Amino acid sequence: MRTSVLARIGTWIVALLVGAVYGLAGTIAHAYRIAWLPVGLVLAAIGCAALLLAVRLLTADRGATLATGLGMMLATLVFSGSGPGGSVIVPQTELAVAWTFAVPILVAVIVAWPERTRRGAARTVSH
Q1: DSSP string of 33-47?
Q2: What is the pLDDT of residues 83-114, one digit of tens each?
Q3: How far apart are CA 16 and CA 28, in angstroms?
Q4: Total-model pTM
């Protein structure tokens, strides 16, 4: 049964908002380090990748996954710049550059990943 257009648009909006929350959390937390290990960057990337994979696998909809990724990228873009008072949430460091590139790369890889197909699902046996 095909889902209605309204339901798909609603799914994409929710996916965009959830992606924005993850993108915001990753943008704020990516700079956390323990000694030399960039724990914040690693956990933010793992969290965003897990969300993108979950959306892709559970909905089987590239559009919803792309909307999630766009929310992440939008939050990263908005909160990486300087605020109205001149304050900067994300200073220009090597971790910030890595985070800025990690999000679109994760989105591109997960959205472009080939569809899962079940073997034998295409074959039907009739007696």
Answers
A1: -BTTB-HHHHHHHHH
A2: 677 667 777 788 888 989 999 999 999 999 88
A3: 18
A4: 0.82
